[in-house]
C-alpha cells in the first residue's frame, strides 16, 4: 500500500541535463500528483553580506545550500503537510522574500547538483538518478546558456568553469554517482532510460490511486 510520497533524486553536473531529464519525466504526467523541488531554491540567505561579498559565493559547494531546511520541508511533505519553499534572487545573490506553497503529492522529483551529497537527504529518497555527461559537453552547454540567457562574457564563463565548477564537480558531485540506483548517460536523449523511469513512475502512481 502506498502511504507516503515517493521521492526521486536527480543529480549530475552543471549543464549535464538533469533539469531536462526531470522536466521530461514531469511532462509525461500532466494530470498526476507529481512535482519537482529544486535544490537551487535552498541557496542560503546572504542578506547579511555586502553585494561584493555575495558575488564571490561558490554556488557549487555544499556550504552554499541550506540543505537542513530542504530536509525539514521534505519530511513535512512526506507527512502530508504543505510547505512554503523559498526562492532565490540570482540578480541580488541572496534569498528572495517570496516563497511558493508546495502541496503534498504522490511523487516528488528532488533535483540539483548536490542532492546525493548529504546522507540525510539521500536516505529520504526511494530512487536515486545520476545524469552522466562528459565534461566537454557540459561546458559547451554552460557557455551557450550563460551567454544567451544571462548575458555573460565567454571569458567569465570559462574562468568560472575552470576555477570553480569543474573542480567542485570532481570533488563533490561526481563521487555521488556511486549512490545512484540508475546512471543515465547523455541525459534526456537517452530515451530508453527515460522510458524505463516513466514506466516505473506510472506504476507507482497507479498504486497510489488504488490505495486511496
What does this structure look like?
- The protein has helices at residues 18-27, 51-55, 67-78, 119-122, 135-149, 154-173, 191-210; strands at 6-12, 34-38, 83-89, 94-102, 107-111, 127-132, 182-185.
- It has 212 residues and is an alpha/beta fold.
- The strands form two sheets. A five-stranded parallel sheet has the order 2-5-1-6-7, with helices on one face. Strands 3-4 form a two-stranded antiparallel ribbon.
- Helix 5 (135-149) packs across helix 6 (154-173).
- The protein is globular.
- The model has no long low-confidence stretch (mean pLDDT 92).
Give the helices and strands, then pairings:
Layout: E1 6-12, H1 18-27, E2 34-38, H2 51-55, H3 67-78, E3 83-89, E4 94-102, E5 107-111, H4 119-122, E6 127-132, H5 135-149, H6 154-173, E7 182-185, H7 191-210
Parallel strand pairs: 1-5, 1-6, 2-5, 6-7
Antiparallel strand pairs: 3-4
Helix pairs in contact: 5-6
**How many beta-strand runs?**
7
Question: Low-confidence spans: pLDDT under 50, at least 5 residues?
Answer: none
The secondary-structure class comes to alpha/beta
- Radius of gyration computed on alpha carbons: 17 Å
In DSSP terms, counting alpha (H) and pi (I) runs of 4 or more, how many helices? Answer: 7
Helix content: 40-55%
